[in-house]
Amino acid sequence: MRDREGREESGARPELVTEGVPVWLRGVVEREPADPTGTNPVLNRTAMKQVVSAAMRPRQASVLVLFGGAPEADPAAPGGLPADADVLLTQRAATLRQHRGQVAFPGGGVEPGDHGPIDTALREAWEETGLDPAGVDPLAVLPKIFVPPSRFDVTPVLAYWRTPGEVRVVSETEAARVARVRIADLIDPANRFVVRHPLGYMSPAFEADGMLVWGFTAGVLAGLLAVSGWEREWDPHDVRDLQAALAAVGMTL
Questions:
Q1: What is the chain's alpha carbon radius of gyration, rounded to the nearest angstrom?
Q2: What confidence tier does 52 reach under pLDDT thresholds 50, 70, 90?
Q3: How confident is the model at residue 53 (pLDDT cuts 50, 70, 90)?
Q4: Which among 55, 92, 15 is positioned nearest to 252, based on CA atoms?
Q5: Rounded CA gap, 227 and 30, in Å?
Q6: Which family does the UniProt entry place this protein in (predicted)?
Q7: Which long-range contacts (CB under 8 A, 24 or more apart) does 17-21 make?
Q8: Which of 21, 118, 127, 211 has CB 3.0 to 4.6 Å from 14, enough for a Cys bridge?
Q9: Can you give the pLDDT at residue 60?
Q10: Quick check: is 122 in a domain?
């Protein structure tokens, strides 16, 4: 049972689930994200490389990379990916000071009382989307990735939505949208490309469900798809201007 903050009332540290992992998810659970095309600098961003003084020490955060879909693999699909497989994403409110309007995984900063990165990710997902953590199986804790604009050192927590339930925008000051985005749309080569930020840096990108996914979130997704067994061949040389790509789906930088 969980309290109003989504934690186990016993205060126990949430643990990884190691048995009963869907076969189609084993690729992303057992392998670290990879960048075979050399187009994903997100995976290489670490605090040690970016921070040079104690005054700039990063803040700790976690995000929930939550996959849903039938537990049974589809033998006719690459990697066994079931037709209903999806991932939970949010679109941040346009009024936020940092990363406004961007598509993101549910997540946020560590708070006192959190019992490790899994607990942080589940608590934040509950606060942002109303997700019931009791239906979620945490499967893996991925290496931290440093996000320079916010100076967060972010731990992605990979999980399976064993018992899906209703999710929604809990607070319009935090999120404009909560969506379950189909993996089939993300791996469609027509929806994949690279974007170049006005400052010059590049990021993997996905156009799906009327949104542009780029930056940290797209980097994590691209890294996972590369080891998933589900990925379809796409053109990593298709580089587009970020502002133009956002405008194409009615979003702004």
A1: 17
A2: low
A3: low
A4: 92
A5: 9
A6: Belongs to the Nudix hydrolase family. PCD1 subfamily.
A7: 17/137, 17/138, 17/139, 17/160, 20/71, 20/137, 21/137, 21/139, 21/160
A8: 118
A9: 94
A10: yes
DSSP letter string, 185-246: HHH-GGGEEEEE-TTS-EEEEEEETTEEE-HHHHHHHHHHHHHHS------TT-EEEHHHHH
Q: List the one residue out of 47, 43, 25 whose CA is nearest residue 34.
A: 43
How is residue 176 written in tokens? Answer: 């404009």
Determine the distance from the C-alpha atom of residue 176 to the mean position of all C-alpha atoms in its chain, rounded to a whole number: 17
Tokens at 130, concatenated: 């109303």
Domain of 41, CATH number, reads 3.90.79.10
Judge whether 227 lies within some domain: no
pLDDT at residue 149, rounded to an integer: 78
Give a yes or no: residue 135 inside a domain: yes
Q: Which residue has the higher pLDDT, 39 or 9?
A: 39
Q: State the Cα–Cα distance between residues 29 and 24, nearest whole angstrom.
A: 10
pLDDT given for residue 238 in this prediction: 98
Per-residue pLDDT of 102-144, as tens digits, reads: 999 999 999 999 999 999 999 999 999 999 999 999 999 999 9
Give the span between the Cα atoms of 79 and 69, in whole angstroms: 14
31 Cβ contact list (under 8 Å, min separation 6): 227
On whether the CB atoms of residues 234 and 227 are closer than 8 A, the answer is no
What pLDDT, on the 0 to 100 scale, is given for residue 2? 41
What is the DSSP track for 17-43?
--SS--GGGHHHHHS----TTS--GGG
pTM above 0.90, yes or no: yes
The pLDDT assigned to 192 comes to: 98
Is residue 158 situated within a structural domain? Answer: yes
Q: Identify residue 176 by its one-letter amino acid code.
A: A
